[in-house]
Design goal:
Elements: E1 4-17, E2 23-28, E3 38-48, E4 50-57, E5 63-69, E6 75-87, E7 92-94, H1 116-128, H2 134-148, E8 150-151, H3 162-168, E9 170-171, H4 173-186, E10 191-198, E11 205-206, E12 210-217, E13 221-225, E14 237-243, H5 246-249, E15 252-257, E16 262-271
Parallel strand pairs: 8-9
Antiparallel strand pairs: 1-6, 1-16, 2-5, 2-15, 3-6, 4-5, 7-13, 10-12, 10-14, 11-16, 12-13
Helix pairs in contact: 1-2, 1-4, 2-4, 3-4
Length: 272
């Protein structure tokens, strides 16, 4: 029987606006999924400075909340918290399901397009793993990416593509996921982006959520790979949103009308 980990999560996102907001909408993908070895025991989301207008599942089966910011607000705080139980399935999610066809995850996007950098990396791994099975090939690819793109925060952002990350030689978990997705799609495998949470060893408070990728293998179905930590996700990982890239699975995206800048702060706690 798979080992089950019970995780407590509290995620607070605060937007502060330089001038009162005239109009703003925010789309939240912050509710973890139940299924595939993961069970949401309890989960609540509350908003100050705005109000929830609508909740729905998007075409990729991500639970989505639409928030309208109060007119004249100078601060919005979104608090999500709850308890999730996760089985350690060694990264194996299983067969494909949902509204989106499998071929959708073979299509490249602006963030996962395979340019010369991705193609060269994929070709090198293909040659090195001719006699290996798919799982071994993916682990080798993950190791090659970690070596080519050193983990370093503050150097990339949401617009950094897989090609740009390889060229820069550094990035974060989001960049590692994009490079792995781009390379595996170039090798002929469907791949998708996962945003979620990770219980870190000896560290409760974090500055941001986590991201990794899943690759579809004929023998096992979807299997997760976390390039940043060089493992397949275990009972410490909570899956929240799925997408072709970060854009489809971003925790919060929005539009705003009004003058002035905005500042974002995130407080995240994940503990057993």
């Amino acid at each position: 029987m798979a080992e089950v980990t019970r995780l407590s999560i509290r995620h607070v996102t605060t937007y502060r606006y330089e001038a009162p907001v005239h109009y703003a909408l925010q789309k939240l993908r912050l509710t973890p999924r139940s299924g595939h070895g993961q069970k949401v025991v309890e989960w609540t989301a509350s908003v100050s400075g705005g109000a929830k207008q609508l909740s729905y599942d998007d075409p990729l089966m991500n639970q989505t909340d639409l928030i309208k910011v109060d007119s004249g607000a100078t601060e919005v705080e979104i608090t999500c918290e709850g308890i999730v139980e996760v089985e350690d399935r060694h990264g194996v999610i299983g067969q494909h399901s949902g509204y989106a066809p499998l071929w959708l995850y073979q299509e490249s996007t602006s963030l996962t397009a395979a340019g010369n950098n991705v193609r060269q990396l994929a070709a090198r791994v293909r040659q090195e793993t001719e006699d290996l099975d798919d799982i071994a090939r993916m682990h080798r690819l993950s190791a090659e990416i970690a070596e080519a793109v050193t983990y370093k925060i503050g150097k990339t952002d949401a617009t950094t593509s897989a090609e740009m990350a390889i060229a820069a030689g550094h990035g974060v978990c989001q960049d590692h996921a994009h490079v792995m997705i781009a390379a595996t799609r170039h090798l002929g495998y469907p791949a998708r982006y996962i945003s979620g949470y990770l219980l870190m060893d000896g560290q409760v408070s974090q500055d941001a959520g986590h991201a990794w990728c899943e690759v579809y293998l004929d023998t096992l179905g979807w299997v997760g790979f976390d390039v940043s930590n060089q493992i397949c996700p275990d009972g410490r990982y909570v899956r929240v949103a799925v997408g072709r890239d970060y854009g489809d699975a971003a925790p919060i995206v929005g539009i705003r009308q009004g003058e002035g800048d905005e500042a974002l702060t995130v407080s995240l706690q994940v503990q057993q």
